[in-house]
Design goal:
Layout (H helix, E strand, L loop, with lengths): L1 H9 L3 H15 L8 H17 L11 H21 L4 H15 L2 H4 L10
Length: 120
């Protein structure tokens, strides 16, 4: 694992490459001026709501996969931009969250239940 992390420091991860491409797209249009933390968070929330709207009054199987891809991409885009704005390493923050959730939701107590950690 340590060797893998050292390799990742030398080579960009796919997430870093995608984020760099996104930043290039943004900068070519001079949109950074609109990308303050508040507005990125609001945009992320709005795109998540648009993602939810795809499922409104439908079963999960009825979702339009093309639109699902578009809205999910928008959610990821604003999340990546917000993380880059605050110099957050996405891999690290996700792994940290998984570790925290493993403590809050031990498999022995949380398996086969959707209850909140405080109710386990």
């Amino acid at each position: 694992m340590r060797q893998q992390r050292n390799c990742m420091k030398k080579n960009k991860t796919e997430i870093e490459e995608i984020t760099d491409r996104l930043i290039k797209f943004r900068d070519e249009r001079n949109w950074e001026q609109f990308h303050n933390s508040k507005d990125l968070a609001l945009a992320l929330s709005i795109e998540a709501a648009e993602l939810n709207e795809l499922f409104l009054w439908k079963t999960a199987e009825e979702v339009n996969v093309g639109k699902l891809k578009e809205e999910l991409a928008d959610v990821f885009i604003f999340a990546l931009l917000l993380a880059r704005k605050h110099k957050l390493n996405i891999m690290n923050i996700i792994l940290e969250k998984i570790a925290a959730n493993e403590k809050k939701y031990p498999a022995g107590k949380a398996k086969n239940t959707a209850r909140k950690y405080s109710e386990l």
